[in-house]
Amino acid sequence: MPEVVRGSLVLDRAAFSQPIAHSESGPAAILPTSPTERPRVTFDQNREDTSNSLPTVQTFSPPPRRTVSIRRHSSHNQRRTRDLNEEERDAYYDSRAATQREFRRRGSTLQSYYHQHPELLPQLPFTFRHGFKRWKLAGYISLMVFDACVVPILLYYSMTYGGNIQGYITFAVITAIWGGPTYVEFAVRSIRLIKKKRFFKPLGANQKWAFDITNWILVLTIAVVTTLLIVGAAPHIVFLRVLSMPGPAILYCIAGPIFLMSLYSACGWKAPFRISSTAKGEKVHPGIFYIVEDIVAVNAGGGRPFREGWAARYNASPVFRKMIRDQSWFWSIPALVVAVGCTVAVCIHPVPKVVVFAVGWAVPFIWAGIWAAITVPWVKSVMKYERKSWEEDATILGEAHKEIDPSQTSILGAKPDEDANTPREPMHDRPESSSPLSEGMATTV
């Protein structure tokens, strides 16, 4: 992932557009260099400084023929040596940063790194674009949805109307099978958070049994759904309407906490207890912030590097904060509306029981699929706009001027002590008369 430097496009345009002034008595004036041309910074504090140039391609004479096992062992050692010694790109902008090996050897955190480099847009050290992680996570999510939604509907209608089997036997089978992959994944993520190893734990939580908020939400959801299945299937004549409520109950248990956390964030209230990486007494973030952070950090294996990059991105980018806030409302309020609608349809007697079961189990998952299909292009569009607006932001020019004369106001009209996180108007939205490129470019670094 390449660096995204604030104001880099503005500086590049200025470097090409500003004329070179030649002097009769001296050499030509040197144009300012772009901040993208900067020495690379790595995790390891003990390493020697490296140049900006990429490693040169060396030619070797063809090695003698070797057996398959020797070649395989040699290639493995070469890959390992290359990963440890070569720096093909900045480790903070590489998905390798979200590995346990990189986490153990690094010398500082992502938050401290971006605090020292405020001109950089914090990157998320995790990617699904290549590697096996995306297929593993996508396959597991598909298996969980199939097990939680499709299997109960198929078993109920096939065994009841195809095999003429009594209800308590049918739901004994459904209860025994339902949620298998979900329970396994919940057990795996719980073990990761219980262990003393800090890689998967929330930021600031180094003790054992440091569950994040997503784990507690899953505990609540599993307890409620299991209770409904046991109560509904216990009698000889099953309570079909009770057995149709696990789908809406899942929406209540997940969307309810997301809505409450988003409400806390909108009202500026403090956290009454630790919420993932937010300690007690700190300001609460919107609900989707914690859900995405916990799932990618624990279930997808991103670990603390992803939590650090996620928090740094949220603190640095106003566009990113707005997207997280909008997604929190977009997922929580409609989910509660769908859950209430399904509950009403399940509870009122004019709706036949045969229809009720399909509504209760299918509608919540169909709604979630539609919302996911809307969310993916929405998020991609916002993040593309975020990157473009960050590169076109001229705040870095104002900071360069303030280094020369702190008493002067910045070229964007901001006060010298203005917060760096305050959103500023991008350059492409400003009139031509307010362009800061007309003077003082020789002092830009």
TrEMBL record:
Keywords: Membrane, Transmembrane, Transmembrane helix. Residues 51-60, 433-445 have a biased composition (Polar residues). Signal peptide: none annotated. Residues 37-50, 415-432 have a biased composition (Basic and acidic residues). Residues 20-90, 398-445 are annotated as: Disordered. Residues 68-79 have a biased composition (Basic residues). The chain crosses the membrane at residues 137-159, 165-188, 209-237, 249-267, 329-351, 357-379. This is Uncharacterized protein. The lineage of its organism: Eukaryota, Fungi, Dikarya, Ascomycota, Pezizomycotina.
